[in-house]
Amino acid sequence: MIRADGRTLALVALVLAVAACLPLTGSAYWLSLGISIAMYTVLTTSWALFSGPTHYISLATAAFFGVGSYTTGIGIEYLPYWALPPIAGVLGAVMAALVGLATLRLSGVYFVIFTLGLAELVRQVIIWFQNISGQKGIYVLTKITEAQIFWQLLGLAALVYAAGWAIGRSRLGFALRIIGDDEEVARHSGINTARAKVALFMVSGAAAAVVGAVLAPRFVYIEPSTAFTPMLSFQVVIMALLGGTGRLWGPLVGVIPFTFLWEAISASFPNQTTLLLGVSFLVIVYLLPRGFVGLIEGTRRRMRAREAFA
Amino acid sequence: MKRRTLLNTTVALTLSAALAGPALAQETLKIGAVGPKTGPLAGGAAVTHWPNIELWSTEVNERGGIDVDGTKYMVEIIEYDDQTNPSETISAVTRLATQDEADFILAPYSTGLNLAAAPIFDRFGYPQVTSTASTDRVGELSDQFPNLFFLLGQNSEIVGDAVEILTELREAGDIGNRVAMVNVADAFGIELAASAKPIFEEAGFELVYETSYPLGTPDLSPVMKSAKDSEPDAFVAWSYPPDTFGLTEQAVIEELDVGVFYTAVATAFPAYKQRFGAAAEGVMGIGGVNAESESFQDYAARHMEVTGQAPDYWASGMMYASLQILEQAITGAGTIDRDTVTQYIKDNSFDTVMGTIEFDENNNNPAYWTVGQWQGDAFRGVASTGREGAVDPILKDGWE
Amino acid sequence: MDILITGLFLGGTYALIAMGLNLQYGIARIMNLANGEMIVVGGFSAFWLYSSAQVSPLLTVFLVAPVAFLLNWLIYWIMLRPLVKRAKSRGQLEVDAILATFGLAFVSVGIMLAVFGGDYFSYSYLARPIRLLGDTYALNRATAFLAAVLICAAIYLWLNYSRPGMSIRAIAVSPESARLVGIDVPKLAALTFALGGAVTATGGALISMFFTLDASTGVIFTLKALVIVIMGGVGDVRGTIVAALLLGVLETFVAAVIDPGLTLAAAYLLFIVILLFRPQGLFGRRGT
């Protein structure tokens, strides 16, 4: 077991190291794809840390992301850039703690739509404040390059994986798995389900806020309608579910093919982009009911079965 | 209507393909175009952005291409839908620069999407002549992105001129000094309202009602009722397309009695006139054109003929002008070397459908229409920062 | 009084937006994220018939409703029934339905874009003032409110007093037991899904009288409908109506008395507060 862990760790470190070399190739095109992949990897993996074991689908990603964007957008006037992503992370975690505490009694679809309503509430309140404060537009003019943004996202991804790995081995991870199987059982066996859920939700909220803060310089101009776009929350859910949330690496195997598919469709069918994206969602849902993880594990099992017979 | 557009395009394309023929080996310029075809800004881009690209490329190819030092280059447009998502705009512009190796890339649509793409344009040295971006930080932005040009004007001027028109009307004794001001709580609306407040107060106007409303507010009647109760002499809304329509409809229903009724974005859309008919008479908004100028009339007629729809009276003309500037700069520089073309844009003046355009030291077009008004069948410019052909503003007289 | 009436009119609009989704989710168990696109389809039909042939939107609904019914019936049998069959649990079906209808929403936007372009479509119909109790209101909103009352009443009566209606309510309470007493669950689920789609498209045709729509606006309505359905409680028609009216009145009150900038914030706050005190929504049952 320990040896297997060591091997996994070495493998992950190697993959990250290789990925970190991407900007050195000098290809702006691959770098921009790399940023998409890194961004969605952080968002989906941290989302799945919470939603995977608990089966609670959160649509609040956009709220955390938007708060992160605004942290950089407003903070850049007063503070050096490097201070801002950590602040965004703390804000995201605090917000997630409040949301987590508020949602303890909700389950199923009520939780899903609650988080959606909450994300919209946060957006409305922030826009309202921006409006009455008399601020004229939020600009983030920095010298930060695409490569630097990519490295920050990659570092964040490493952190999220480390956190996921640590949680999986801790009492917390164990508690969460039981909650996911049966919340009643978990409660009866003396697990503080509330604390476990809130703790995990904070991790995913903080990660999304940091992503928003890191990406703000890329957009130069922060608009409420794009910083808080509800589409982002849906995309994260879709990608994570397509990958599979049962494994730590599940979302990643959703994000990578999905980013390439998205890119291929956007590049080849500019007039039917939306239509074909929809069609590919449908194809995936019907042909890959258990996500890419299901596909990979299914293949592996078949291969093993064949070996056994051989 | 849309189907006819498609048909026209097909016919035009077939024709131009047939005319070009296989006999003449043609040089081609690859021109990249990015903009929203879906998402929140798709409606605006369908009026202002895409039809002009279609019109310009059709015309250029019909007349045999762009002249570059004696060689004719046909244009091939490579379009991408950015889904109104700045990440997608960045990806699409990067893709155009690196994968498609586009010779030139047209500026994207809207302030936010243009600024998101600016670092990429800058990095690959493409001139970015924006026609739908409006900001008050022209100086800072052109320092950081020396290839970035602004045609549409600055927020402070747009707001300042609107206040000036009101001041003139007040001094002529046509309206009092009570102003109701509302704004949509999104980027552009917030910026305009924030600029407007001090200017109104400085000009001695009393803001008797002042509020914002969220983007996508389903019912604006409480806003209009409160505005009406404050008994304003002028109503000013820094609004976006859906609420520009919504506010006007509520004003008609409430029979709001003001001397000036101003709504911002989309007032200049032909759809506004179509929807409100005679009630649109006297409504003011951002933009305007010199409707009497031959070049604009000619442009509007060609726009109608090729795309099957009329241009709007604000950014459409500027969008087309940005394409003319690019074309004239390529021909004038006599090369497709982008640095030379960019320098040419900075150093020269251009003859466009909106009149002569010359950029200042901040790459900003200093002469543009700021306030327009529906008078008769056109949205005519009533104020500008140095354009010819302004008409006198008229008072809003009821909604019949 | 003025606020109350304006608010009720807005609430009626919300009921039109959300009622169809409640039927689809509450009974057919499909969380339909393409709900807003069906509204836009209805709205576009009304716009197109009005601007090309001067057909009143109030007549268009009689065309839109049966077509949408058929369309949604086909969608259910072709796309969604296989998901229902293969789902091992309620949760599995929920996830599959979210994914599939999200895809469907994209496909619908793509088709609408191809058919009628990305332009705004807006027209003016019954945009005239009427006077009620000394205040002025928009005639088109009042008309939509009346239509909402008729539609909601018809659905309520049908569900409570007709045989298929009662069977449908039995399914909402317990699909398993409904099967045991001989109710053809798949057929009635398809019927309800189709009915929900027809109601949604009808709502779309009606609200297009005063909303400016374009091919991409569907998602805004989907969000609103989701919030209303959940706030009212899944599977209960009364819940949706009460939630819709509550939101309408609250938004109007906040806009008129406090600050229009906070209308949507107040609406979401109300939603959140209600869920905090009644996690199953206003009229929801525990454990569904």
Write the layout of secondary structure elements.
The complex is a heterotrimer of chains A (310), B (400) and C (288).
Chain A: H1 2-20, H2 28-54, H3 61-75, H4 84-102, H5 108-132, E1 138-139, H6 146-169, H7 171-181, H8 183-188, H9 193-219, E2 221-222, H10 224-227, H11 230-243, H12 250-268, H13 273-287, H14 291-309
Antiparallel strand pairs in A: 1-2
Helix pairs in contact in A: 1-6, 2-6, 2-9, 2-11, 2-12, 3-4, 3-5, 3-9, 4-9, 6-7, 6-9, 11-12
Chain B: H1 2-20, E1 27-35, H2 42-48, H3 50-62, E2 66-68, E3 71-81, H4 86-98, E4 104-105, H5 111-124, E5 128-130, H6 138-144, E6 148-150, H7 155-171, E7 178-184, H8 187-202, E8 206-213, H9 221-229, E9 234-238, H10 241-254, E10 260-263, H11 270-276, E11 283-286, H12 294-307, H13 315-333, H14 338-347, E12 349-352, E13 355-358, E14 369-375, E15 378-384
Parallel strand pairs in B: 1-3, 1-4, 5-6, 7-8, 7-9, 9-10, 10-11
Antiparallel strand pairs in B: 2-3, 11-14, 12-13, 14-15
Helix pairs in contact in B: 1-3, 3-12, 4-5, 7-8, 9-10, 13-14
Chain C: H1 2-26, H2 35-53, H3 57-86, H4 90-116, E1 129-132, E2 135-138, H5 139-161, H6 163-173, H7 175-180, H8 185-207, H9 218-232, H10 237-258, H11 263-277
The gist of it:
Chain A: Keywords: Cell membrane, Membrane, Transmembrane, Transmembrane helix. By secondary structure, chain B is an alpha/beta fold.
Strand order, largest beta sheet of chain C: 1-2
Count the E strands of chain C.
Answer: 2
Largest interface, with Cβ-Cβ < 8 Å? A-C, 45 and 49 residues
Query: Helical segment tally of chain B?
Result: 14
Q: Average pLDDT value of chain B?
A: 90
Structural class determined from secondary elements of chain C: mainly alpha
Estimate percent helicity of chain B.
40-55%
Order of helices and strands of chain C: HHHHEEHHHHHHH
Subcellular location (chain C): Cell membrane
Pfam family, one (chain C): BPD_transp_2
Family (chain C): Belongs to the binding-protein-dependent transport system permease family. LivHM subfamily.
GO molecular function (chain C): transmembrane transporter activity
